[in-house]
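#onboarding

Welcome to the new folks! Below is a worked example of what a typical request in this channel looks like: someone posts a single protein sequence, and someone else replies with the predicted structure as tokens. Don't worry about understanding the tokens yet, we'll cover that in week two.

Example request:
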Amino acid sequence: METRVREAQKDPTARIRDELIAENQLYVRKMASKICRRNITIQDDEYSVALMGFNEAINAYRHDQSSTFLSFAFTVMKRRLTDYFRSEKRHRNHQVTLIPSDSKDNEPIYPEVVKKSFENHQDRELRERRQSEVEEFREHLAKFDLTMEKLAKVSPKHKDTRQNLMEIAKKIASRAELLDQFYKEKRVKRGFAEQVGCHRRTLKRHRNYLIALVVILVEDLPTIRDYLELPVDMKGGGDSE
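Example response:
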């Protein structure tokens, strides 16, 4: 897949691009349905937006990053659909309600009612985003044979330890070669520990917790980063596999 993407990047007019898009239409529709949390058909606007995101991913994919192309494409499609939803929301907010002045439905709308309704909508939207991100986080952890329950058991109790591990995670996430080595090595080597500035036993003891932190830093999980009081737009050296 990655080799074919590279060929498509070299020549935008090549047939390989059309073949990639055609072969992955089912994947695009499946991922669009997952993001939208409802069944998406090829007739839906959301499908067209996701398909454009897939094509954009072909152009933007870097072959030195640690994620697979399909993982990267999912992230791009999610961002494009999020932009689409926001655009649709702004459009609806600017629409004029066509109700005759003598209609019974033309009741006065008090500012406090509007404010409360808007706050309720924001709260509901935030809960839905958090739930969606938690499910996405679970999927990323599962790739490393980790669960939220297992993670809770290995989380350090001391605040200083957690802060120290966060700094180590930032170093790992900020450099693609460290990120790739950290995910793929079955054991932590002394040289790697020296590169990130900590003892090898510390990395070994807290490896699972560090994996979770690195995933949070490199994946598109802004509400989880906000919960951990990290910059919401913070990104690492690449998307994790």
